[in-house]
Amino acid sequence: MIVDPKIIAAMDERLDKLVSLDIGGRGVEHLYAAARARQGGPLVGAAADALLAVPDGATVFVTTGSVSRAWISTEIGENDGPAGAAIIARALSLAKRVHCVVLAEETLLPGMRAILTSAGLTVLPFEQAQIACKDGSLAVVTLLPFTTSDADAPSEAKALLARYQPSLFFSTERVGRAKDGVYYSMRAIDYGMGRARIDVLFEEAIAQGVPTVAVGDGGNEIGMGVVSAAVAEHVKFGGTIAAVTPCDVLVTAACSNWGCNAIAAAMAARRKDVRLLNAPELERQLLNRGVDIGLINSVQNVVDANVDGLHLEIHVAFAEMLRAVVKPALVS
């Protein structure tokens, strides 16, 4: 059953308003205005349409994860990003039997496996996952590391794209390099050491015509290259940290996980499939799982379930608000 386009259009506007509510006061409302002007319509809806346009059973590259304190250890990851990426991979698998290949640093893959499993996905090697996608017997993902070497990144990028031939590349809360080639934190600290050069892979995908969707909340992430002027003007240290890597569809959000959750909600509305939603209880489960594996709240520098300094209950409530926004489409 097709949902009335007017209902979808109204929901897309509400979802955009929710994700761009700048609770942390970091300037995302300005980034949203720039991204919205470029897109010419709601950002969340455009991202959902792009994801649902991939063929059934296709392969999609997904990247997230940040070696957030790389100068200390490359095994320390951030809790914004992985949960959102897991929700997108889950929605794609349930909606279209899509096989997501999740790329991150090798040091972060064990934690990514735990988060993806908590989202209901089975992590398998590529060939086995392909079987499951074809017969629809499992919601699956594959994990893949990418090089941390500047010298090796271009050739490895070409090789991966040739082998896996993704129909789309999705990035969330994945830091990209700035105009000077450095990977900066929000505090303008160089933390490129031990970081997989996935932005090089992303840019090669763009060069080869692969559609791209990105989510970010600070200006230093992959995809923010399309609003770099707004980042420089409105974000603290923006002139230094602004990432240069562009994308086809950019979703700016107060928290990157929120952007992913809103995209999944828009997908659920379009497909009239409640399974695609990130339910509040699942959001709680994923963020608490992040504590179990040691992901840090990078704003407050501790291991807890509060993402970007916002309390766990705010994130759970946000998931409930998303469910309320799209409920008319799911029950009509």
TrEMBL record:
InterPro entries: GLUCM_C (IPR025504). It comes from the Bacteria. Pfam families: GLUCM-like_C. Residues 15-322 form the D-glutamate cyclase-like C-terminal domain. PANTHER family: D-GLUTAMATE CYCLASE, MITOCHONDRIAL (PTHR32022:SF10). This is D-glutamate cyclase-like C-terminal domain-containing protein. It comes from Simplicispira suum.
